[in-house]
Amino acid sequence: MNDAILTTHNLTIGYKTSRKTVRCVASDISVSLLAGELVCLLGPNGAGKSTLLRSLAGMQPPIAGEVRLLGENIYKLAPQELAKRLSLVLTEKVDVGMLSAYTLVSLGRYPYTDWWGNLTPQDEAIVNWAIKSVGAVHLAPRQVSELSDGERQKIMIARALAQSPIVMLLDEPTAFLDLPRRVEIMQLLRQLARETNQAILLSTHDLDLALRLADKVWLLATNGILHIGAPEDLVLSGAFADTFKSEGVEFDIASGEFHLHIPYKGEVNVMGESIASVWTIRALKRAGFQVYQSKNDLQTSIEVISNSKQFLWKITNNHNIYTYNSLSEIIKFLNLL
Amino acid sequence: MLSEKSKFKITLLNQKALALKIIIFSSLLIGLIFAFLLDLALGSVDIPINEVVKILLGQETEKATWANIVLKFRLPKALTATLAGAALGVSGLQMQTLFKNPLAGPFVLGISSGASLGVALVVLTASATTPTLLADLGYLGDFGLVIAASLGAASVLGIMLVVSRRVQDTMTLLILGLLFGYATSAIVSILLQFSSKERIQSYIMWTFGSFAGVTWRQLVVLTPVILLSLFLAVLQSKSLNTLLLGESYARSLGLTVQKTRFSILTSASILAGAITAFCGPIAFLGVAIPHLCRSFFNTSDHRILIPSVTIMGAILALIADLFSQLWVSQMVLPLNAVTALIGTPVVTWVILRRNSQKSFPS
Predict the structure, then answer these.
(1) Mutating which of A51, A74, A93, A95 best tests the B interface, going by the most B Cβ atoms within 10 A?
(2) Burial of B271 (0-12, 13-18, 19+ CB in 10 A)
(3) Contacts of A40 (CB under 8 A, 6+ apart)
(4) Domain limit, last residue, from A223, A252, A281
């Protein structure tokens, strides 16, 4: 089942800055996208993620090398034939004026319909299926202009699905969305890849979500090198840390998160194992303190006391004991020390 | 697949919407016929509508002069108004969708400026060598003016089409069109500076706009040109719908954007250019009509908009023509003043409504 759908051979991408000079973004890329696979394209701003996506979508001719879709060079395919195999979702917010969500999705059938755009019963069935697949049946009769960003992005994905493609490319589809909506869209895409056996490639800045949900990660570094592998492999090989290395920010290999590099304001010991102590530790770290657990020789120590109704923080500093009932008061107190 | 219930709901919704659309379309058609007959009946001499119908059907009327007035003067004028309204409306719709700009009209490409330049060149300079021609040029509808305006519009159109094949970005094209307009009006004002009062007068008369100058002989040329371009616009409906998504999406759906843009620009320019050549630069109709139709039908679907804009445009142009001669007997108000008075409230309303609910591409 894992057939290569989209493959590149020694692809060099870039764009012309003027008539003669060519800015090369990345070179010698040889990768393939497999059926049923969700791949996340990651990389710092300006690394050329969009250029790579545009080149793979056949919208920007490569400088060298080729992109093949099921063995056919995509730059030699007729636009309409390409549209039947490959669909796109872009970052830009489209403002389509007065169209219902249903009509917008049905535009995805453009490469298949007659000159007037009439939908056959089969086209209608596919449009309905696409709307249902993204969980947007209740949105179908509504005007696109009334939808929220998340709802609109779902409709745009449904439109891309209605094209019945074998590859779907998405350029930062979650850029304007809040966190729950991002998780929802990412999970939806993963599920679609599984159910429809399409290859789905999306670029994103959500490292955390990509690490958790992607089958594979393409990591495009600023120097034009594309690292490919399972998310965890790329973390362990250090490719992640290298790619996103920048001043003041560090990739923590233990937690898989990025940390701001600020000198510590002091050391604090936190006692207790409850949920409240987890969040206490987070609050202290955020405020810039180095936090230890069960290290009793420190000057400052905090104990979280929770009863069924509320939390109390007992702070011991040089044998003086103070009690506070919120973390913001604790931080204020520590900052004054 | 969808549950039977929700499927039924969608079908029901579609049927209701369809019925509503048929009702609006029929009332628009009735409105068009009514406006057309009214335009034939009213004027310096009022003729009863049933007599007008008789004349149209080729029957005998009470007064022989009525038949003469209707057939020789009012019928070509009403036909011109019908064609002009439809052409300007559709051309405006095409431009608004192509440029994704709600305030774009048929003249954003500098077509009217090109036509004005052509006319200015003829009226203000060429006639200097043949002084007797000046008298003829004072009246609208002279073939010389038409040819000059057509040449002016066509040359701007030609330049814009050549540019459009090389420029990737549609916004750049819009800006170039505007700049072109400024340049031509600058040349026109220089020409005006060096012209005599009478010549300036006849140029200004042309800029007022009128449907009355078009003769039967000119209609034989104008009608097929407009109908053919309208037909081309109908063929573009599907592509125009795809362009609502923006050029990138349109391309990803298999639309060859360059080719489509060329075809849209061609038909829009011919529609606007031909009408401007024959009737003068008529403002506001092209911008206002598409907005009216969008809110009437509550859709941006061009398969509905193009036919409705055609009818609505014709109605509004006929009404504007009626208004231009109803106020003072024996005197005709400048058509452009009337269309602006009708158009400004519509455009104002569009802008205000956009602010409150954002219903059109920004």
Answers:
(1) A95
(2) buried
(3) A201, A202, A203, A204, A210, A213, A214, A216, A217, A218, A231
(4) A252
For residue A154, tell me if it sits in a domain. yes
B299·A111 Cβ contact <8 A = no
Burial class (CB in 10 A: 0-12, 13-18, 19+), B134: middle
A227 and A282 part of one domain: no
From A252, A287, A313, the end of a domain falls on: A252
Is B7 at the interface with chain A, CB within 8 A?
yes
Q: Could you tell me the residue range of the domain that residue A321 belongs to?
A: 267-336
Q: Is residue A260 part of a domain?
A: no
Structural tokens at position B19: 């019925």
**Does pLDDT of B212 surpass 80?**
yes
Query: How far, in Å, CA of B200 to CA of B315, rounded?
Result: 32
Q: Is the pLDDT of residue A167 over 90?
A: yes
Lowest average pLDDT, out of A244-248, B242-246, B273-277, goes to A244-248
The complex's ipTM? 0.82
Residue A305 lies in a domain: yes
pTM: 0.84
Report the C-alpha gap between A191 and A37 in whole angstroms: 10
Hey, what CATH topology would domain B4-357 get? ABC transporter involved in vitamin B12 uptake, BtuC (1.10.3470)
Whether A170 and A35 share a structural domain? yes
The tokens of B330 are what?
A: 């024996």
Test A98 with B6 for CB contact under 8 angstroms. Answer: no
Q: B11 CB contacts (<8 Å, ≥6 apart)?
A: none
